[in-house]
Amino acid sequence: MTWFLLIVLFVPQVVLGGEAKPLAEDPVAEARLKHLAVELRCLVCQNQTLADSNAPLAEDLRREVREMIAKNMSDQEIIDFLVQRYGDFVLYRPPVKATTTLLWIGPFLLLAGGAVALGLVLKRRRQAVTDMPITDEDHRRVEQLLSQGEKRS
Amino acid sequence: MKRFLLPVAIFAVLVGFLAVGLTLNPREIPSPLVGRVAPDFSLPQLHESDKVFSPKELAGKVWLLNFWASWCNGCKEEHPVLMRMAQAGNVPIYGMDYKDRRDEALTWLRRHGNPYVLTGVDEAGRIGINYGVYGVPETYVIDKQGVIRYKQIGPLDDEVVAKTIIPLVKELQSK
Amino acid sequence: MIPEVGHFALILALCVALVQGVFPIYGAAAGSPVLMSMAKPAARAQFLLVLIAFCCLGYAFAEKDFSVLYVAANANSKLPLHYRLAAIWGAHEGSLLLWTFILTLWMMAVTLFSKHLPEAMRARILGVMGLVSLGFLLFMLTVSNPFERLIPAAPDGRDLNPLLQDPGMVMHPPMLYMGYVGFSVAFAFAIAALLGGNLDAAWARWSRPWTTVAWCFLTVGIALGSGWAYYELGWGGWWFWDPVENASFMPWLAGTALMHSLAVTDKRGGFKVWTVLLAIMAFSLSLLGTFLVRSGVLTSVHAFATDPKRGLFILVFLAIVIGGSLLLYAWRAPRVGLGGGFDLVSRESMLLANNVLLVVAMGSVLLGTLYPLFLDALGLGKISVGPPYFDTVFVPLMTPAIFLMGIGPLAQWKRASLPALAMQLRWAFGVSVGTALLLPFVLGKWTPLLSLGLLLSLWIVTTTVAHIRERVSHLVGNSLLSCLAALPRAYWGMVLAHCGIAVFIIGVTMVKGFEVEQDLRMNVGETATIGGYTFRFDGAQEVKGPNYIAARGIFNVTKEGREVTMMYPEKRLYAVQNQAMTEAAIDSGLLRDLYVSLGEPLEDGAWSVRLYHKPFIDWIWGGCLIMALGGLLAVSDRRYRLAWRRERAEAPEALQPLEKGAA
Is residue B129 within 8 angstroms of chain A, CB to CB? Predict the structure, then answer.
C-alpha cells in the first residue's frame, strides 16, 4: 500500500490532466462581451479593439460591460452607456447621424457618379465604332499565325 | 475643359484639410459631458476614510475636480500649478485619487504638498469611467448648478490656468 | 568619421539631384542633346552617392556607433547583427534613407533598360525622378538627418522596438518601398508623356513592365505586412483597416486599375487620358501614405515619431508634386485625342467598368480613413472609423469587379456579343452558383457571406477554364499541351494573377466562416480540443534570449491519438525597453493554422491560454504570392525579352531624332 502511495505521489501527474476550463466565468456572457468589444475602441492605445487591448482602462471597461451584460442590458444600452461617457470616438462602427451621412452614403455616391461617367463615355465611344465582319476561319488563322510566331523565336 | 480641372480641385480641398489636420491632435478625446450635470458619487475620503465625499454637498459653489494618482508622471508635473492655485484661493480644488493605493497616495501628498480641500478615493476606477476619464491627470470645472463646464485633458499649466480656467471660474462665480 | 562621409554623400546627392531634375527637362523642351544627356550619368551618380550614405549608416549600426543619434535610439549592444542592420529602416530617418535609396535604385534600372526610348522621353523621365529625389534628400538634410550626432555618445542604445525584431519586419519595408517607389517610374512616364505631348500606344507599351513589377513588389510588401501582423501581434488578426494599412492598400488599388488601363492603351490606343491620370494617382497615393504615417495627422499602430515640422514639409512637397502634376494634366490632357471607339459590350467597356469600381473602392477607403480628420477639422466632433465600416463598404464594391473579371477576358475588343458571352459562360455560372449554395451545407454551416465568397472564387476559376478553352479552340496544334504552351506568357500571367485572387478569396472566406477560438485557463497536464486537434499543456520553462528573457510554454498537439507537433509559445520581456511581448506559436499547414498564444501566469503554474484553429488562412498570403508571380510571369513575356535582347545587341546608341516638341 505504501509503495503504491509513494508511486502516485512522485510520478509526475502529466497523463491524468483532464479538460482545461474556459478562462471566463460565464462563456455565454463572454461571447457577448467579445461580440461587443470587437467594435469598441481602446481609448488608451487607440489602435486596438477593446477585446484585444491589455491596457488597465480596457480591463476596467470590459469589467463594466460584463456587469452590464449580467444586468441584462441590451447591446444598444451598453453602447449608449459608453458613448455618453466617451463620445462617438469609442465606436469603431461610426453611428449614422447627420455628420456621418456623407461617410455612409459616400461610397455609393461615388459608385453612382462613376456609373454615370462610365455611361457617358460609353455612349460617346459607341458612336465611333465601325463594323467589320470577322469569320471563324479568320479567328483560326489569327491564332495559327500567332502560335507560329511564338515558335520562331 | 472644366472636367480636367476636377482632380486638382479635389486635391486642393484635400490639402486644405490635411493642413488643418497638422494643427489638431487626433489622440485627444473631447468630453461629451461638458454642459451636462456632473455624475453623482459617494466615496470615502482619503484622509478621513469614515467621511464621505459627494458632489451634492458642493451645490452653489464653483469648484475643480482633479483626477490624479501617485503613479502618474503628469500629475507630478502639474502639482506645483495646483499648489499655486490653492494658495491664490480663487477656486476650491477637490481631488480624486484614481486607481491608487491609499498609503502611497497619502505619502505622495505629504511629499509634494496637498492643494485639495479634500480627496476622494476611486480605487476601482468606476467614477473615472462615469466621468469619461481615460488617463490621468484630468481636471473638471464644475459650476454652481453642478454642471461640468470645462475639461482639461492632461496636466494643467500656468498658461491654461491664467487664460482659460480662472476667467471661466470668475464668470461662473458671478452668475 | 564614417557618418560624416554618409552625410556628405547625401549633400552631394542633393546637388546631383538638382542637376538631374532641372537640366534634362529643360533640355528636352529646348532640344539640346547636351543637356538631355546629363540625365543618365546624373542618375547613376545619385545611385552611387545614396548607396554610400546607406552603407555608412549600416556601418554605424554594425559597429554599434552610439554617437550617432539614430543608432542610439534604435539599437543596443545586445541586439543581434541582422536586426541591427534591419534597424536602419526601423524608424523615421532611416526609413526615409531607404526610400531614397530605392528611388535611386529604380533610377538606375531606368538608365539600364531604356535604350529603346527616345532621348527626350528618357531625359524627362529621369528628370522627374530627380525632382522627387530632390525633395526627399532636402527633407532628410533639413529635418530628418539620420547622421545627426549625439554628443556625448550614449553608453548604450535604446534598442529596436521588440515588435520589430523579427524577420518579417526585415523584409516588409524594403518590399513595400520597392512597390511605392516603383510607381514613381510610371508617374515619371506619365509626366514625360504630358510634357512631350506624345501620349500614344508606344508610351503605354514602355510603361507597362515598370508598372507591373512595381505592383508585384507592392503586393508582396502588403502581404508580408499582413502576415507579420498575424504572427507577431499575438491576436490572430491579419488586417485591421488601420490608416497605415490603408495607405499601402490605396496605391495598390490604383496600381491595379493602372495596369489594366495600360493594357487597353497599349493594345487599342484607348483610355490615354485616364491612364495618365491613374499613373499620377497611384504615385500620389504613395506620397500621401508617406505623409499620413509621419505627420501625426492620424493615429495608427505604425506611427513614426511625429513632428509637425516634418508633417508640414511633406505636405508642401506633396502639394507641389501632386498639385503640379495635376495642373500639367489639366493643361495638356485636353489636347490628347480620343482613342478608338468601342461598343457598350466589349472588352474595353468591361475594363473601364473594372477601373471605375477599383477607383471607387480606393475612394471609399480614402474617405473612411480621412473622415475623422474631416470632422475634427470642421469642429464637428471626433469619431472613429474602423473595420466594421470598411468591411461593410468594400465587399459590395468588389463583388461586381470580380464578376467582371470572369467575363472580361472572354469579351472581344471593340465589340462583343452579350448573348454569345452568356452562352460561353453558362456552364461556369451554373457550377459556381450551385457549388456556392450547396458546399456550405456540406461543410456544416451556411451564411450568405460564406456563399458569396465561394461563389466569387469559383466564378474566377470556372471562367478562367472557360476562356482557356476558348483560346485553345482556335489553335491548330498537335496536342492540348502544345496548344497551351503556345499561349503567350502574358496570358498565363493574367491567368495566374486572377487565380491568385480566387485563392485569396477562398482563404478569407474560409477563415472568417470557420475559425474557432478558445480562451482557457490551463493547468499543467490539462487538455483542450479545438478543430479536431487536442492540445496538452506540459508546463512552462524560463529561457534566455540574446536580449530578452522569456517564459516558454510547452504544448503537445495530437489529432485522433496521432502526434501532430509540439508548440512553444513564449511571453518575452525585453530588458532594455522593459516591454513584454507575446510570441505566438503557429503550426502552419496547407489547410489550416494552429495558433497558441500565452496570456498571463495564474496560480500553481497554470496559465491563461488562447487557442485558435484557422482553416485556410495561409491561402490569404499564398493568393497574394500567386498574384505577384502572375505579374512577374507577364513581365517575362516574349516581347519584353526580345526587346531586351535587341537592346543589348545594339551597338552604341544611335542618335534618336530630336523632339522639338512643345514645352
Answer: yes
Q: Looking at the 3D structure of chain C, how many domains does it have?
A: 2
C337 vs A: CB within 8 A: no
CB contact under 8 A, C373 and B5: no
Residues A79 and A107 in one domain: no
Question: C663 in helix, strand or coil?
Answer: coil
Domain with C6, as residue range(s), is: 1-165
Across the A:B interface, residue pairs with CB atoms under 8 Å apart total: 38
Q: What percent of chain C has pLDDT over 70?
A: 95
- Give the predicted TM-score (pTM) of the model: 0.90
Tell me which residues of chain C, numbers 370 to 389, contact chain A at a CB-CB cutoff of 8 Å: 371, 375, 380-389
Chain A residues closer than 8 Å to B125 by CB: 56-57, 60
Do A76 and A114 sit in the same domain of this protein? no
Contact C350, C263 (CB under 8 A): no
User: Cα–Cα distance between B98 and C42 in angstroms, integer?
Assistant: 62
Query: Which residues on chain A are in Cβ contact (under 8 Å) with C356?
Result: 114-115, 117-118
Q: How far is A74 from chain C (nearest CA, A)?
A: 20
Name the residue range of residue A83's domain: 20-90
Taking residues C463-483, report their average pLDDT. Answer: 82
CATH assignment of the domain containing C23: 1.20.120
Q: Can you tell me the ipTM of this complex?
A: 0.89
Q: Residue C413 belongs to what H/E stretch?
A: none
B132 and A86 within 8 Å at the Cβ level: the answer is yes
Residues across chain B: 175
d(Cα B139, Cα B97) in Å, to the nearest integer?
12
Q: Taking residues C552-579, report their average pLDDT.
A: 89
Q: Is residue A1 part of a domain?
A: no
For chain C, give percent helix, strand, coil, nearest 5. 65, 10, 25
